[in-house]
């Protein structure tokens, strides 16, 4: 919804694109609660195309000109934020089937039309890829973007200095990479059975600096090199290898039990993320049984397995054991079981907004009580001295019959036939918003006009600044 003129135009053409806010734009961290209207409406802007001859409002045009200038400035100075807008394939207005020639027209005209259509689609795909790559590069270069599993393996190298910390890091890194267990896990990775990463190195610099395990507990004497992890696709299992130094003790010479609990909490959670619907979860409960003291200065192996996953919940068991020398049996230090729950959309949006990241959500939210709860959640700041997080409710007001016409999967038809129960707008209610910040009627306005309307509102409210 935070878009420049080019992004709005490409959205109108229904070609996916990524765009960057200009360097002067400094949004005040709004979370946009974007939901459908009267029935199970498409929460995102609809896949409709407007003829180029259709006039646009002067206001939308002038705002788009300003946005275009902002985009040009961004290319010179780098972005201060990022968003992505995407859409599907172009859908012609009703009564105008694409690629079908009119009566009496030569077949070659149909061929030319089809060729142009394919060209547009290919251009859209190229624009999507180029935009996404540019956005990723911009964020990564500024230390703001998360890194892939493969990239995380390249983002750490022990220091070359003669200091004690660098020497320890080199020694630990060499020992881990030379161990037979690591070699076996990497062979499994080559077969596609597990995915290797260094989870803490996937974090952007600013994020990692505020992380307990990736920041405060990392470094000489604590965790001198980032842990390695091998995760089975789908969140089924995890194996992690790490070295724990001498400065994480409870009793002298023994690793603090609280650190081991933190390792289990994070490791078991990371194991099941792939089994949760949004790829993230919070700890509902964690039970730890300590079996033996852990000597400081030890190489440890954490093993975890997701035993059950249902909806937003996942149950995991795991253990911490020693990294044994060849032919030796590992020593069991601690065992744990845990339950993780994937937060609801509103809670996830607030987490992002509270960390100065714009959160845009798009889904069906049929009940006012749920939307009011999300609004109150953002209004309740964690720090009494902080202002409430801005919350923007966008009502996509579309008649039921229009929503049914736009249904490519035939869900409405199935709901009317009784094949789908409790379907919003058919067999379940939809409660319209009583006081949304923004209302857009996509059956009356083009996609570009709707985008301009949203941008206008954000500028007027001070959430977005355009030159």
Verbal overview:
With 467 residues, the protein is α+β, with helices and mostly antiparallel strands. Among the domains are: 202 residues, Thiol Ester Dehydrase, Chain A (Roll); 116 residues, Rossmann fold (3-Layer(aba) Sandwich), CATH 3.40.50.300. The protein has 14 helices and 13 strands. A seven-stranded antiparallel sheet has the order 4-5-6-8-9-10-7, with helices on both faces. A four-stranded parallel sheet has the order 11-2-12-13, with helices on both faces. Strands 1-3 form a two-stranded antiparallel sheet. Helix 1 packs antiparallel against helix 14, helix 2 crosses helix 14 and helix 10 runs parallel beside helix 11. The longest helix has 35 residues. It is elongated. The N terminus is likely disordered.
How are the secondary structure elements laid out?
Elements: H1 5-12, E1 17-21, E2 31-35, H2 58-77, E3 81-85, H3 107-141, H4 149-152, H5 164-178, H6 180-190, E4 195-197, H7 205-209, H8 212-216, E5 228-231, E6 237-244, H9 257-272, E7 282-290, E8 298-310, E9 313-322, E10 332-341, H10 345-354, E11 359-362, H11 368-379, E12 391-396, H12 400-405, H13 411-416, E13 438-440, H14 447-460
Parallel strand pairs: 2-11, 2-12, 12-13
Antiparallel strand pairs: 1-3, 4-5, 5-6, 6-8, 7-10, 8-9, 9-10
């Amino acid at each position: 919804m935070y878009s420049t003129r080019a992004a709005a135009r490409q959205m109108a053409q229904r070609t996916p694109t990524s765009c960057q806010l200009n360097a002067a734009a400094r949004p005040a961290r709004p979370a946009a609660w974007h939901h459908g209207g009267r029935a199970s409406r498409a929460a995102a802007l609809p896949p409709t195309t407007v003829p180029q001859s259709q006039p646009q409002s002067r206001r939308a045009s002038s705002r788009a000109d300003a946005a275009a200038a902002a985009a040009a400035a961004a290319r010179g100075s780098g972005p201060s934020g990022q968003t992505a807008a995407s859409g599907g394939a172009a859908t012609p207005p009703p009564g105008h089937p694409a690629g079908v020639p009119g009566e009496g027209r030569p077949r070659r005209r149909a061929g030319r039309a089809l060729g142009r259509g394919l060209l547009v689609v290919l251009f859209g795909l190229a624009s999507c890829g180029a935009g996404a790559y540019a956005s990723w590069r911009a964020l990564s270069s500024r230390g703001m973007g998360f890194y892939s599993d493969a990239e995380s393996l390249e983002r750490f190298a022990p220091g070359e200095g003669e200091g004690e910390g660098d020497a320890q890091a080199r020694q630990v890194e060499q020992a881990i990479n030379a161990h037979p267990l690591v070699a076996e896990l990497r062979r499994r990775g080559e077969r596609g059975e597990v995915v290797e990463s260094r989870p803490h190195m996937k974090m952007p610099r600013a994020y990692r600096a505020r992380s307990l395990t990736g920041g405060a507990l990392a470094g000489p004497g604590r965790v001198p090199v980032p842990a390695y992890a091998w995760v089975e696709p789908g969140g089924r299992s995890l194996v992690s290898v790490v070295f724990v130094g001498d400065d994480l003790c409870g009793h002298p010479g023994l690793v603090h039990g609280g650190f081991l609990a933190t390792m289990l909490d994070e490791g078991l959670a990371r194991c099941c993320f792939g089994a949760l619907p949004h790829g993230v979860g919070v700890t509902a409960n964690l039970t730890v049984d300590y079996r033996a003291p852990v000597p400081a200065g030890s190489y440890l192996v954490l093993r975890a397995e997701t035993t059950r996953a249902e909806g937003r919940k996942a149950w995991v068991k795991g253990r911490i054991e020693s990294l044994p020398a060849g032919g030796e049996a590992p020593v069991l230090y601690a065992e744990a079981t845990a339950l993780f729950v994937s937060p609801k959309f509103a809670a996830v949006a607030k987490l992002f907004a509270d960390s100065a990241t714009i959160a845009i959500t798009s889904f069906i939210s049929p009940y006012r009580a749920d939307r009011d709860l999300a609004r109150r959640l953002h209004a309740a700041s964690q720090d009494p001295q902080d202002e409430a997080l801005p919350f923007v409710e966008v009502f996509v007001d579309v008649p039921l019959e229009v929503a049914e016409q736009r249904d490519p999967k035939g869900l409405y038809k199935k709901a009317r036939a009784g094949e789908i129960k409790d379907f919003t707008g058919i067999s379940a209610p939809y409660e319209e918003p009583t006081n949304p910040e923004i209302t857009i009627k996509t059956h009356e306005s083009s996609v570009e006009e709707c985008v301009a309307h949203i941008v206008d509102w954000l500028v007027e409210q001070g959430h977005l600044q355009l030159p």
